[in-house]
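Per-record layout

source: Kitasatospora griseola
name: Dehydrogenase
length: 267
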Amino acid sequence: MTDGRPAFDAAGTGAVVTGAGHGIGAALARALTEAGARVVVNDLDPDAAHAVAAELGAHAVPGDAASAEGVAALIGAARAHLGAVDLYCANAGVATTGGPDAPPDAWERAWQVNVLGHVRASELLLPDWLERGSGRFLATVSAAGLLTMLGSAPYAVTKHGALAYAEWLSATYRHRGVQVHALCPQGVRTRMLDDTGEHGQVLLAPTAIEPAEVAEAALRGMAAGEFLILPHPEVADYYAARATTPDRWLHGMNRLQRQIEARQETR
């Protein structure tokens, strides 16, 4: 028990992992399976979902984990296979570069996947979890939700929204047996990092870790009952600096932005 809350034991757990065809999601599905969980692998890419499920001996449910219809279909199929969903890993996410100039559909897609996918899943999961007094929601938020991500306003803004929603869920329902975790890695060696361009290469690539390390941190954090799970421990110091000395922190971030602009100008 941690703070009066049950510790996490993956053995026998019925788990859903969204965005599990690649990267962090695939690593989470793999780590949970190895720990004894019964896993449903979800991804928008059906070939990727089926490939990971076949590797793990898990169950594939391809589809959209953001829209109301897609989330309902996923949870319905997962319950039919597992009996009940004990752990929902809201891992699917999209990263869009740009600022206010990013196309409206890019902003909308980021909002739908990075925030509303979490809201819609919890809306369907909570009645059962509250009735039986147990349930666990793991949101892959990213350190961008604690800090920011230069070069990608839609990602930074919606990841802040994902963190805010996870905090709200935890504050509202933890006394009723619902455990919520916010997984906040910094750079991770995935296709998403490859797509972040100059900003990602400067800010994230130097300290990037493997998806398996993120998954290991997630299982440790859930076992310890932690809300914030930080695979990069230094993020805690950055988060504290942002909260306690915001002008100094913003000046430092702007200095990084100017360095990136200078690199781009020399090309």
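summary: The mean pLDDT is 93. The chain has one domain: 14-265.
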